[in-house]
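Many introductory courses stop at the sequence. We go one step further.
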Amino acid sequence: MFIDLRKTPEGLSSAEVLLSLSESFQSTGEVTAEFPATVSIRRDAGYFYVTVDYSCQVSMECARCCESFAQAVEGSVSFVIQSSKLEDMSDGDEDVYTYESEEDKIDFSQTVYDDCMVRVPVKPLCDIECRGFEYVQSHEVPEEPEMPKVDSRWSALTQLKNR
């Protein structure tokens, strides 16, 4: 997921795109390889203010029954791209990328991936009614194991135990 800075016009522009994660994220198999997104970019005096609204499917495992399932995740992430020649305007709420020249392309796949993973529950459930594993309880009473023969020197202790 790259932004080509040369092709971004001044002012506000937006586009509906199919985002594809870089191959390092696709190998995990957690997030769908391609997903729809709306990318809005406002270019202003060396700064690019970017907002990405996305919707994807994330594969996960139920915390109760351990079955695999896919869950829809929607989110919005904002970040700023600025020239390395400009003063850092970061206020801590947004990620800030820097570029050397407008010939650069900025890869923001890690930012979108991180935002997506933060929206995934820590203990996901395949269904709110999921009861977990089915335990099968046996009604058979296990046989008591035979006691091994005790050394005759311990017979006094065995008699105390049996009282």
